[in-house]
Write a structure and sequence with these properties.
Two copies of one chain form a homodimer.
Chain A lengths: L9 E5 H17 L3 E4 L7 H8 L6 E3 L2 H9 L4 E4 L8 H9 L3 E6 L2 H14 L3 E7 L14 H11 L3 E8 L10 H24 L6 E4 L2 H6 L8 E4 L7 H6 L9 E11 L4 E4 L3 H4 L16 E3 L5 E10 L4 E5 L15 E5 L3 H5 L4 E5 L5 E6 L5
Helix pairs in contact in A: 5-6
Amino acid sequence: MDLFTIETPCLVLDKRKLVKNIAYIKERLSKLGVNLRPHGKTAKNIDVITMALEGQKGGITVSTLKEAEYYFSHGINDIIYAVGIAPVKLDRIVDLIKKGAHITVILDSLEQAKFVAEKGLLHGIDIPALIELDCDGHRSGITVDDSLMLDIGSFINNKEGINLAGVLTHAGESYQCQSVEEIRALAKIERDIAVKSAEILKKNGLPCSIVSVGSTPTASFAEELSGITEVRAGVFMFYDLVMAGLGVCDKNDIAVSVLTSVIGHQKSKGWVITDAGWTALSRDRGTASQKVDQGYGVVCDVSGKPIDNMLVSSTNQEHGIILSRIKEELDWDSFAIGNLFRVLPNHACATGAMHEHYYVVDGSTEVVDVWHRVNGW
Amino acid sequence: MDLFTIETPCLVLDKRKLVKNIAYIKERLSKLGVNLRPHGKTAKNIDVITMALEGQKGGITVSTLKEAEYYFSHGINDIIYAVGIAPVKLDRIVDLIKKGAHITVILDSLEQAKFVAEKGLLHGIDIPALIELDCDGHRSGITVDDSLMLDIGSFINNKEGINLAGVLTHAGESYQCQSVEEIRALAKIERDIAVKSAEILKKNGLPCSIVSVGSTPTASFAEELSGITEVRAGVFMFYDLVMAGLGVCDKNDIAVSVLTSVIGHQKSKGWVITDAGWTALSRDRGTASQKVDQGYGVVCDVSGKPIDNMLVSSTNQEHGIILSRIKEELDWDSFAIGNLFRVLPNHACATGAMHEHYYVVDGSTEVVDVWHRVNGW
C-alpha cells in the first residue's frame, strides 16, 4: 500500500518522527530524574504507547475507560484515569480492578471520595485515588491553600473501599502561554504546587506515594522536577501546530497529518478545494489565538514537507479550502485535480479523534502498517 | 435501559422531535410541489433516513462513499454523492454501479468529466454525473454565466462512460444569513440559478433531468420552487443551535443532545465541570458568529428542557465547563456531582460525527432503541 493509492481523506503517521519525538522527551525527563507516565489520549493506540513506555516504570494515563480497558487488554496494568470520577463510571472501574488492573481514579471533592469509598466497600476492594490539584486556574482541582485537600485526604485515609495514592495536577493553561519563558515559569508553579501539597499531606500523616504533574509544554521546558514522581504527557509523541506555535516543537517534527485529494478550484478566488473537511481535520482552531493563525492546518506535499504560505483556510463537512497567504503565489499546476497533499493539524488529539486508523509511513510514501485507534468511551 | 443508568457522555436522539421535524419539511415541500431527497450526512443512520424517505420518490444524498455503501446495503438504490468526485474514489463508484446502485457523481471541471468518462468506458458502464453550480460564492461550482458549464455539458454528452444527469447547487451561505428575509432571498437565487442553468443546457440540446437544490435554511423558507425537481437537506431532521439562531427552528425542536454527568465544581468561578468535552460535543462553534453565542451548547435538564441562561462555555478533551450567563443564578444543588444534563449542539452534523450510536428516547427518559451511525469514509 502507498499514499498514492489509498483513499483520501485519511490519517498518516510518520514513524520516524514519532520515534524521534518520544526519544527526545524521554531523554529530557531522564536527565531531570523523573519517570514518564505517557498519556494514552492522543495516540489511543497500543503500538505508540508501547514505544512511549519502553524504559519507563510501566504506568500510563488515560482519558476514557474505553482507553483503560483497551490498554489493559494489551497488558498494561498500571493506569491513572485522569478525569474526575463520576458515579456512573465506577462499575467499570470495579470490573477492571477485579480483572487485575491497578487503576487509579482522581477526584477533588468529598462527594466523590464518598461514593468511591462506598463502591469499593460494596465490592470488598480498595480503589486507589489521587487528589486533583489546581495549579493554574485552568479547570478542575483544589488550590494548595484550600483546607479541603486535607479534609479529603483524611477522609480517604480513614475509610475502607478507597486508598489515598497521592496528588495530581495538570498545567492546562500552558497551551495559552505566549512565550517559552511563560511555559518555564508555569512548569515551576506546576511542580511547586504538587510538591507542596504532597508535603502537607505527609506532614499530616497521610500517604502520598504519587506526585504527578504534566502537560507537553511544561514537560518540554521544566528545569527542575525534584519531588515529582512522574510526568504525564501525550501530545509530544505527535506534536501539532499549537505546539509549534508555542515553541515546543518545529513544524517539521509533527508526526501526524491528513492526506487529502484536490477535488476542485475557484481560481478567481485563489481557492483549491479538497476532500478533507472538518470530519477529517476536526473543527479545532487552536492556533486562532496564537501569533500565527494556521487556519485549519498547514499544507504539505505528499512527502510531508510544508509548502510555504499554503494553509487550509476553511472547512465544511467534507470539503476543505486551501489558499496561499500570498494569493499570486499559488502554483495551480501543482494543485491539479487528483493531486495529493498532507495537512498538519492544529491539535493532534482533536484531528486524531476524527479517524479510526493511522496509515503508518516510515520515511517514504509506502504504508508500512495500519494502526487502530480506540475512540469513544 | 434508561438515561439515568447509561454511561455518559453519549448522544441522545428524541424520536418524537425527529418525527415532527421530518413531517414539517415534507409537508412544506409537498405544498411547493417538490420532492425531498434527504441528505444522509447528518443522521448517518438508516432508521432516520427511512423515515425521511417515506412518501418521497426514493432517492437520497450522501457525503461519503461509506454512507453510499451503507445505505445501498440497506436497500436504497438512488444515491447522489454530493462532493466533487476525486480520481481515487472512482473504483468504489464503479463497484457500487456494478452491484446495481444508481449512484450519481458531481463535478465542476472538464478534468473531472474526463477521468469519470475514462473510468466508465474502461468498465463498460455509464457513470451519471451532475454539473455542480455555484449560486452564492460559498464553495465549489460553476457560476451561471460561465461558458464552462456548456463545455462540460457538451463534453459529457458526447462521451461514452459518462451520462449527463442534470445540475446541482447548494446555498451553503444560508448558514451565514442574518435574517429570515436574507434566507428567503437566497432561496430564490438558489432556485433561479439552478433553473436558468437547466434551461441553458436544454436550449443547447443537452439533457437535464435533475435540477437539484438544497440546504436546510433555504428548504425552510423557499417560497417558490417551480422548475426544481428535488430539494436536498439533512440538518432539518435534527436541527441544532445554529438553525435556531437563524430562525429556522426553535430550541425546543432540536432532536439531538449529549447526555453528560457533573464531575466537579469550581464554585468561586461559577463553574460546573462535566464529562462532555469536545470529544462528545465537537469543536464546532457555529453560533460564535450569530447574534447569541451559545458557547459549546445550551444546557437542558435530563428530560431535554433547556435551562435558562445555562450553557457550556468551554471544553477540553473530556471536560466541559458549564456556567450561567448570570453567575448568581446558578443553583448548585441541582448541579450536584453525578447529576445528569443534556447539551443541545451548535451543529448536529459535527456533534453527531463524534459518536458511534444514538440512544433513542421517545418522550421519556427510557431508551427505546440504539441506532448506529456510519462515520468515516
